[in-house]
Amino acid sequence: MENTLRQKARELLEKGEVKVVIGYGWNKRKTHTTPVFITKPQDVEKLIFNPLCVNNLSLYLTRKFPDIKALGKPAIVAKGCDIKTIAVLISESQLKREDVVILGMSCNGVVYKQELWKGELKPEIMPTKCHNCDVRNPHIADIIIGEKVNFTPPDTPAGMVFDKIRELDKKSNSERWDFWIEHFNRCIKCYACRQVCPLCYCERCIAEKNMPQWIETSAHPRGNLAWNLKRAMDLTGRCTFCGECERACPVNIPLNLVNQKLALVVKDAFGHKAGYDEKVHPPMIVFNMEDTEDFIK
Amino acid sequence: MTTKFLKKENLGKLIDTLIGEGSIFVAPRMGARQVVYAPVSKFEEIVFDYIIPINSFKEFLFPQTETVAAFSIHKEGVDLRGVEIEPKETVIFGSRPCDAASVASLRAVFNWDFKDEFYNRREDKAVVMTVACTKADDSCFCTTVNLTPDSQKGSDILLQETSGGDYAVEAITEKGKGFMDRFNNFFEPLPTAYSPLPTVDIKPIAGVDVQKVKEWLKDTKHYENPLWQELARKCIGCGACTFACPTCHCFDIVDEGSAFEGERIKNWDACQFEFFTLHTSGHNPRDTQYKRWRNRFMCKFNFYPNKFSSRGCVGCGRCIRVCPVRLDITEVMEEISSLR
Prior knowledge:
Strand content of chain B: 15-25%
Strand content of chain A: 5-15%
Number of strands of chain A: 5
Largest sheet of chain B: 8 strands, mixed
Number of strands of chain B: 12
Largest interface: A-B, 45 and 41 residues
Largest sheet of chain A: 5 strands, mixed
Strand order of the largest sheet of chain A: 2-1-3-4-5
Number of domains of chain B: 1
Number of helices of chain B: 10
Number of helices of chain A: 10
Structural class of chain B: alpha+beta
Distance between the termini of chain A: 53 Å
Shape of chain A: globular
Strand order of the largest sheet of chain B: 3-2-6-7-8-9-1-10
Structural class of chain A: alpha/beta
Oligomer: heterodimer
Helix content of chain A: 25-40%
Low-confidence stretches of chain B: none
Order of helices and strands of chain B: EHEEEEEHHEEEHEHHHEEHHH
Low-confidence stretches of chain A: none
Helix content of chain B: 25-40%
Mean pLDDT of chain B: 96
């Protein structure tokens, strides 16, 4: 699989079809994977693919990275879940389909955090998204790399995140409030959740607008609640549950839980699942003359 | 100074006594599935089997969010009030030698021109009880920056774990000695036989030469070296590294409240944020991420060591552990060390 990946990457670079291949490589000590940007055909040997390739590299296709954009047309190594984000970026006009070459990787799942890897991919170290994945064979790609994966996700979503949602749904409002306040209180306002999120691409985040200060920058309970709620609402109907925010959070706020809950709400209300079709707009950002509600007309 | 002995059961009594006296006892404990430095209320909450907490203990000397003044506006005029803090004694148990070494770094910067009373009063009331490291992970690199897993620097008291789970204890500073004298019923004479656990052996990273890194950084013609862009391209610009770092100390001042009443608050800030250096004119001297990453690296290994005698980096490895894209500061040190 890695050989095919490297061969395709080399061809793309040699033919000049792309100027950079955004992919995964090893760190120096080969304990962790890390994003790499391959610009020379002779460097394609650095590209790897394995269950430690957790990052959603589509982040680097956004306008947050002008110096990567300046390298020229990219090819990106992407798992099905990462491609979902690319689809949303395209539907939100952040990217044109023809401006990126997607090297779609057949995937058997990744680890929740790289530190959990002990040489074998066991279900208990995989994130909830992998247990329910319906895009192990990439759904949008220019080149698909790897053998076809036979995996049917369960009818009822399984895994820790869904179990916890069901548990929280049974609780009272005040219990849920206490649950979230306790978690949000740990927030240190490092904004790793925002920075690692490919869909948080605002040129100026509302957290940085200070005339007036919409979101208090202090890491006190009020500021933390405002920030985390605001971000959750912004991702509603757009979030593809890639899990990067939760993985990046240094204080382990269960962000997958809030984002997945909102994804379920959107699915129930609008029948929309983000990231499957780059031609479909997320429901919260479109206005449609056929909308049944008349309050906005 | 003489070595004493602290039995585990006496540690429990020490905690109870301190908390009874109104002190804060900070120790490694579980917080959201990971080991963190946080206040504990009893012995049972402490985690003893840990490498290093995910956060540094700087938040107990330099809180992430702290009110420094308050204001209100009336018909009669403006009322401005300063905040005087009177911190409680804070005992930091289970500090690691790298973290202890960072206290001198914070003290230097908070006393360089202006004496920051908020920091100083907290630090004056803090007692750092460091436990020498018997374990390390692949992010630890204290020996690469010339510290050791049993270094005394910055600790008031240094403890060495014994095979029975007790501690051989040494006072390092006068403050530490005073603390041990105050609780001499818990710090017992050293028994004739006890077996200290061996300190972990951390090999310095072979390819890194800190002195060379410093010299290379000092040379201003390397400031625009294309290497920076290459090495830091993957940086996503979050503040995880700076907030986890025990020596990062930058802060922002904000006013919160209504137009007529509010507080002036000091919050942690990070040089990795795009708006950290944004001027009111709209110009940003660090307009792309690699320049921000370069700044942090320069701060640790050039600006800081040139200005102060303490360290910019203590080798705790937190910035490596928390980085969502595994941008490893030691790899950059290696890269620069290998340049001719």
